[in-house]
Structures
1.
Amino acid sequence: MNRLFLFIIVLIVTGCASPQKPSYPVRELPSASAMYPSPDGRLYVTIRHTKAPFTVALIDRESGRILGVARSSARLNQEGDKLQGEVRVSYADDMSAIVVHEEFSDASPNPRYILFLRDKGGSIYHGSYFAPPTAHTDAPGEFDFICPSISQVTRDAITLNYYDASQSRSIPIANLLRTTTPRSSQEWPSEDYKRYE
């Protein structure tokens, strides 16, 4: 009887200590194990920050196998125990393409967009960095451009939202500026989204 009682207490304590999944979008990630699961739960994206440079890893949940890796722009907070910034992950319905949108800059907007494309017929993903076109504004203020958010991903195209859903553009992946060298938005030549209209 005492063993059963002790077992129940251990279950309750460990259940309370389990980390909770972060809500989206995340301003300050709670730990190195923050996960962004795919809709079907088979894959997840996580940012690893055990040592610099930080990496974005795409992982198969069942096997624990790393399917793709790219360098992250992540930064830790002043205490050095949490990531400070925002991460959003968008999955194609067929899991053929995944976009990780990071924003860790503390001054002007400077997001990093990471694209993982799956090998045709395979399970490995190749990571690259891309620059979606910005939208320029005439509004007074410090910044005269808007970096888009990702609203939809397919194997062939990415849908970008600028102001709201009515101001969206679908861009073929083949037309995006892409590189395998880590870059954030302000490290690319300026491109206006009207070029794609």
Note: Residues 4-30, 192-197 have pLDDT under 50 and may be disordered.
2.
Amino acid sequence: MVGEWIAESMVATSKITSSSVVDITAQGATFTLSVQPSGRYTATLSRYGQSASESGMLTLDGSDMVFMRQLPSPEDSRAHWEQVGSSVILTGDTQFDFNLDVSSEAATLRTVLVPR
């Protein structure tokens, strides 16, 4: 995982209504992930003209990638990961506002990363 990655696709699927699916990258969002040999990472999501970044430490636990975010606030999250050719696919839990009512709901996020 060491290196620079960019999301080829990011698809959120509602855990409440499985027919609610949003391709975030098709809506113009970009996601980049930079991983250093030390395990430090920086992730940046840009969409709707705004950008949000986080940084922390990344480790592997079997088939899970563990993101131990330090900034902007401490929080741990996990994503199942698999390598397919030169791509890496991350699948994990997230929150997403599917109907734009300013209320997020539980979702699964599938992100396909390719080397940058």
Note: The beta strands are 3-14, 21-23, 30-35, 40-47, 50-61, 64-71, 75-84, 87-96, 105-115.
3.
Amino acid sequence: MKDQHRATIADYSTIYELLHRVEALEVAAKLNHPEKPDSSLVERVADAIVAKATSAGIVNDRPARAAIREVAAWLRKEFPYGARGWAMRLEREAKR
């Protein structure tokens, strides 16, 4: 342990400066790209439930099945290669 590096005040000063630069970049990124969820899925599910619920002769689970199918369609659109299995699973669930 004879060759152990010991940080100097200049080293700490550099680290401190880098920390503040990273924090400033994070703040700027949040200002330019606020964390806003994509509401299109919520709108699609709400529209599907309203459309099915207002039809005549609806069984209680039909709006929920329509909503599940909309979620599956959204997954296929938004994640065409990564969520295919989940979309298929949701579609199977909606058919039961």
Note: Residues 9-32 form the longest helix (24 residues).
4.
Amino acid sequence: MFDHPELYKCKKGYVFIVSPYAPDGRLDTLAMQNGLACYNRLYDPDAKTYIKQFSDKYEFNRWKKAH
């Protein structure tokens, strides 16, 4: 699920992005269970992109530790 993870700092905190290769969309449920939202495909057509925003790095680290 957490294939090609990326974390970016932005004006409102941090944005976490993953783009796993799963052409049939079978990771949608797993992504939603982990609080990730489906986003525009950023890379390969077979790599669906999921995104989650965090207010700060502490919130991200707590989420990461829980998942």
Note: The first helix runs from residue 28 to 33.
